[in-house]
Amino acid sequence: MNKVKVSFIGAGSYGFTLKLVIDILSFDSLKDCRLSFMDVNQERLDNVKILIEEYLHQKDYKNETEYTLDMGKSLDGADFVINLVKIGFLEASNLDMDIPKKYGLYQTIGDTCGVAGIFRGLRTMIFNNKMLSDIEKRSSKKAIVLNYTNPQSMSVMAAAMTSRIPLIGLCHSVQGTTRQIAKVVNIPYEELDYEAAGINHMNWVTKLESKEKDLYPEFRKIVAEKGIFNESGYSDDVFANLGPTRLDMLLRTGYMVTESSVHFPEYVPYYLRTKELIDQYKIVIDKYKQNIARKEKTYKGYVESAKKHELPTFERSVEYGSSIINSMVTNNSCKIYANVINTGLITNLPEFSSVEVACMVDRNGVHPCYYGALPTHLAALCSMNISVHQLAVEAVLNKDKTSIYYALMADPATHSVLTLDEMQKVVDELVSLQQEYLGEYFN
């Protein structure tokens, strides 16, 4: 029997590659898998090799490991492809953030929605089309892509329309947020019974119970007493990390959204409209740039530690990728949350949009679970963003620049600040500046 091959595309990722290797090798069934790491940047590839080889040495891993600049070589015979790419690197992402700022539109993370999310999506979908075509030619017949590259929704939708290869969008927002909630209401996470549904980064925890007791009244009471800014003055890092905007949403909608308080404002037209609101809700503009700087510093520290054979001890993370691989290899089923095509799963969101729902995994793949109808007001908030995703996907599929304008016109945070003429200027300028990545489709 051939050993399972896992290919990491965009392996120079600061945040995911090492973490996912640690997770994969924590399963007995995967200790003998083959690992391939591909990146387009030689320096990043060299650093990931230093880091991974030291970790593999610690784990007494015997297989030969592949490091390559050739995506096709890495994909040859791959059973699982982990997509970690950031097309355009930091330079393109900075343009996504800085050009709209000239017209008064401020963004925070810019990886899923808004001007920055749309343009990252355009670059990523164009790349994914090529990658999926390569996978169809080179990988095993049952190959599957575990996608950690944002934007998830656009990527999942575009892949479903262009390839037979399953592309499963993975995030940690649901499991991360529910762990935070468990700490706030002071119960063991293992005793928390929850359901969540929506779209990536706007998923809503609609059920929150422990031993058949509804925990939402207690949770809302805690938030109301402490205040969304924790006006009580009580020092509580866990509560503080929930943040003002999504706690505000909890009190206004009744439900907790899974995305961070810094990122969530980009999905709605309420918080980024004015400088006064930005200050009021303590929103950190350009937080993405700070995050990258922090991750780069941490990553370089790990590389230096690896050179000295001093890597710290790591635990399995909460990411779902390794559990999916283990379940497909062993047929030991597991439950995850993933971004998949909506085929009647959430009944009041558009068909064939991308939704994030509970899924069961076995040897035959990832099987999304039926959810039903979201509360109408939550579905309405999700639907605003789905329209943006659909228009961005159409822009790529049809090579239609006009659909990029339409996507900005539909985007909640964008149209709360920019005029129609300003939107057109932003699109024209970014398309012109990113011809290296977009020119084949838009010129």
- What is the helix fraction of residues, given as a range? 40-55%
CATH topology of the domain at 5-89 and 110-172 and 318-332: Rossmann fold
CATH H-tier superfamily of the domain at 5-89 and 110-172 and 318-332: NAD(P)-binding Rossmann-like Domain
Q: Residue-averaged pLDDT, rounded?
A: 95
Write down the CATH class of the domain at 5-89 and 110-172 and 318-332: Alpha Beta
Q: Would you report the number of β strands? A: 13
- How much strand? 5-15%
Corresponding CATH architecture of the domain at 5-89 and 110-172 and 318-332: 3-Layer(aba) Sandwich
Termini gap? 49 Å
Number of helices: 18
Largest sheet: 6 strands, parallel
Low-confidence stretches: none
- What class, by secondary structure content? alpha/beta
Strand order within the widest beta sheet: 3-2-1-4-5-6
Q: What radius of gyration results from the CA coordinates? A: 21 Å
Overall form: globular
